[in-house]
Amino acid sequence: MANPDSVVFLESFYEPMAANLARTRLEAAGIPCFLSNENLVGLLPLYSPTTGGVRLHVRQRDAEAALELLHSVPVPLATTPDVASFAAEAPDPVTPRCPRCGSSNVAWGPATRNTYGFWSGLLSVLLRYPVRDKRFHCFHCGNEFK
User: Fold this and answer.
1) Which of 72, 102, 117 is the endpoint of a domain?
2) Which of 4, 89, 98, 119 could form a disulfide with 61 if both were Cys (CB 3.0 to 4.6 A apart)?
3) d(CA 112, CA 5)
4) Any bridge partners for residue 55, and if so which?
5) What is the extent of the structural domain holding 47?
6) Which residues contact 81 (CB under 8 A, 6 or more apart)?
7) What is the pTM (predicted TM-score) of this model?
């Protein structure tokens, strides 16, 4: 059985501003919490997909109440992930959900994992620049999908 005072990962955010809005909302409701990866994502926003974004952590016993509070009124993003760092438009205008965890905190852009085929790998070597396929990236569980 899990210790009710253990710290658990609750949610991941693309931007530090959205994560701080969620943290402030929880603290105003009396739920203690903290953020991780905030400085890294703030200084190097392009690393947000690879680090899992800014992560919000709470105690195990507060997790259910915190999720209910955050999902009752969604935390607004300062900018959407597609506008902030990805030039290509998403192929589907409907917000997709991650097939692994069901989160809607996903973005369309260059894949962070090895997605090289033979020709894209050869072109990447010749150009000395990675030519990667575009996919959806889930900031909650790190899954990449088309």
Assistant:
1) 72
2) 4
3) 34
4) 12, 36
5) 7-72
6) 14, 107, 108, 109
7) 0.51
